[in-house]
Amino acid sequence: MPPKGEDVEVVSFRVPKDVLEKFDRVAEMERRRRAGMIRALMENSVNAITIVTRNLEWQVKMMADLEARSPDSPQLEYRRGQLHATKYLLTTFFGERTKDLILQTVRERTGLPIPHIVPLDPDGNRYGWDSDAG
After folding, report:
1. First and final CA of the chain: distance in angstroms?
2. Where are the domains positioned within the chain?
3. What does the angle CA 90 – CA 75 – CA 49 come to, to the nearest 5 degrees?
């Protein structure tokens, strides 16, 4: 229950039964009721955007430093993989537009471009295009 005096809104929506059954299993593992689990996920998602934004800022700064010192280092390649995974998870959980907004926020706050996630090929070149880079 929300604290007394806090504005609340009742939310109602339709979900396919198979998705709801899977969600209920997750809620059961967390020892929560369905409504409590939905509320926790909604509250956590707002906080997660802030946490992920800060993490991406750190990643971009770290990658810029590594790029300046050693552009083809294993450490930088590892960070490219981390950045790729973070962007993928953002898109999966929040959607493409939210990911784009977060990346723009990171660009503005760091003053740095988003690094390419295209991995180094065995021949020493990068092939492909990362639409989020820049």
Report:
1. 45
2. 17-110
3. 20
Quick: pLDDT tens for 7-31.
Answer: 888 888 899 999 999 999 999 999 9
What is the per-residue burial (b if ≥16 Cβ within 10 Å, else e) of 47-85? eebeebbeebbebbebbeebbeeeeeeeebeebbeebbe
Read off the tokens for 72: 């083809």
User: What is the torsional sign of CA 36, 42, 46, 49?
Assistant: positive
pLDDT of residue 19: 93
Alpha-carbon gap, residue 39 to 25, rounded angstroms? 16
For 12-65, the DSSP string reads -----HHHHHHHHHHHHHTT--HHHHHHHHHHHHHHHHHHHHHHHHHHHHHHHH
Distance CA 77, CA 73 (A): 6
Q: What is the dihedral of CA 88, 49, 94, 85, to 10 degrees?
A: 10
For 68-105, how does the pLDDT look when each residue is reduced to its tens digit (9 = 90+)? 998 878 899 999 999 999 999 999 999 999 999 999 99
Six token digits for residue 118: 């295209």
